[in-house]
């Protein structure tokens, strides 16, 4: 990767990174009870593609276990403080104030983390990945249920809620440009927290919402929104990762190693027991388990692997110009920010296989496992056979992008006895236009037809 020179971010970044009062001190000073060294971790409980470094990891207690073992080697007693935030911005603010040692966030916030850390002389380093999607399917643009908007081009002159500086905003900007719209002139973009944007969409004060996991899936599951644009259509990787204060990584390398070992264990747990992990995260966050599983399941939108894959780092380089054009940074030295050494030092196990093509999946009520199907038609037949009320959730991959979606929220197409599902109506209509004799069919009708 080409080396870049770091420069001071422009003023708008400061607006995105409000300082929040800390509830725990950084490691390095024996400020914990009884002289324990405090390690403060910032995470986003409802940004569920960070769970192996946050919600799931915390519930499993793996970090505390690894730290206790590391402490016996170091002759130190460690104490963990977990701080939960809605977005990555306040985590960065606390890290650059020296009050959070380890944080997890999405790819665009990670770049802001790098830029802000250098500016304030509290540099940070990217040391691992949590969840990723190689095509960008973690971000989605949704509209209110029943909206007449069908394509991104229909957003011209409309109000769109997003979180400026987030990966979801990056998806929106890129997608609008591909649709021939100027993101700065053709839409009215509102910078809002995800929960605020969701309320605005429900209340009709915005026409669309562009957000990251798990908000689009949650709103679709609740019957409050429908997908307008699948981020995987960009075919650009998006991911979440773990960042650490450089000073902490240097002075408490053993503690960082313990965190990365614990993250690997949490990743193993999620991959070996995906349903149980989804139920655990749901209990901790209040999110429906069906939504958690959409993203974090065995064939979910996200693939979990701590490895700093080359394609993810290359995508990070491509994100820098988007933030620069938004006036949020002047430049970011990605090479200087990424540090693969701690993960290689702490985790010696072999990496996970790359993500495979998605399959349809059925989760029946009262079951602790799911069933996978090779085709959408097989899933429809299984749903029909299960009968009314027996299906807890059914998931089907988009026929074009592979993004899994709720089967009863997808747009179904039949042609020549073959069934295909799509996240958006626009994608389904493109398929119909390109395949003579195919037609869009309501989900209930598709189930009946497949089961007859």
UniProtKB/TrEMBL annotation:
<protein>
    <submittedName>
        <fullName>ABC transporter substrate-binding protein</fullName>
    </submittedName>
</protein>
<feature type="domain" description="SsuA/THI5-like">
    <location>
        <begin position="92"/>
        <end position="275"/>
    </location>
</feature>
<dbReference type="InterPro" id="IPR015168">
    <property type="entry name" value="SsuA/THI5"/>
</dbReference>
<keyword id="KW-0732">Signal</keyword>
<dbReference type="Pfam" id="PF09084">
    <property type="entry name" value="NMT1"/>
</dbReference>
<feature type="signal peptide">
    <location>
        <begin position="1"/>
        <end position="29"/>
    </location>
</feature>
């Amino acid at each position: 990767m080409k080396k870049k020179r770091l420069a001071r971010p422009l003023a708008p970044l400061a607006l995105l990174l409000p300082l929040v009062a800390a509830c725990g001190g950084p490691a390095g000073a024996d400020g914990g009870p009884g002289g324990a060294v405090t390690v403060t971790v910032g995470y986003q409980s409802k940004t569920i593609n960070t769970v192996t470094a946050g919600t799931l990891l915390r519930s499993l207690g793996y970090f505390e276990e690894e730290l206790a073992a590391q402490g016996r080697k170091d002759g130190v007693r460690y104490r963990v403080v977990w701080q939960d935030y809605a977005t990555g911005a306040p985590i960065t603010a606390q890290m650059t104030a020296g009050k959070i040692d380890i944080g997890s966030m999405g790819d665009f916030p990670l770049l802001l983390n790098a830029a802000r850390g250098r500016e304030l002389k509290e540099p940070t380093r990217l040391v691992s990945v949590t969840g990723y999607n190689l095509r960008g399917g973690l971000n989605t643009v949704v509209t209110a249920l029943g909206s007449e908007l069908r394509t991104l081009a229909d957003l011209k002159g409309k109000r769109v809620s997003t979180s400026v500086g987030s990966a979801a905003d990056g998806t929106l900007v890129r997608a609008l440009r591909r649709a021939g719209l100027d993101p700065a002139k053709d839409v009215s973009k509102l910078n809002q927290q995800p929960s605020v944007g969701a309320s605005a969409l429900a209340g009709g004060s915005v026409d669309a919402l562009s957000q990251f996991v798990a908000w689009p899936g949650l709103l679709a599951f609740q019957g409050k929104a429908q997908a307008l644009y699948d981020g995987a259509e960009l075919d650009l990787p998006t991911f979440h990762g773990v960042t650490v204060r450089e000073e902490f990584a240097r002075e408490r390398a053993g503690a960082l190693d313990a965190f990365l070992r614990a993250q690997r264990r949490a990743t193993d747990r999620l991959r070996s027991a995906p349903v149980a992990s989804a139920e655990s995260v749901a209990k901790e966050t209040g999110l429906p388990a069906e939504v958690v599983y959409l993203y974090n399941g065995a064939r979910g939108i996200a693939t979990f692997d701590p490895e700093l894959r080359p394609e993810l780092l290359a995508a990070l380089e491509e994100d820098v110009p988007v933030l620069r054009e938004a006036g949020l940074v002047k430049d970011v030295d990605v090479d200087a920010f990424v540090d693969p050494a701690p993960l290689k030092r702490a985790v010696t196990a072999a990496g996970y296989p790359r993500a495979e093509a998605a399959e349809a999946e059925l989760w029946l009520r009262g079951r602790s496992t799911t069933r996978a199907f090779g085709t959408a038609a097989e899933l429809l037949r299984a749903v029909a056979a299960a009968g009314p009320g027996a299906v807890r959730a059914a998931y089907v991959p988009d026929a074009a992008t592979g993004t899994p979606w709720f089967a009863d929220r997808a747009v179904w197409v039949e042609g020549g006895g073959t069934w295909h599902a799509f996240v958006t109506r626009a994608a389904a209509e493109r398929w119909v236009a390109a395949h003579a004799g195919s037609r869009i069919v309501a989900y209930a009708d598709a189930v009946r037809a497949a089961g007859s």
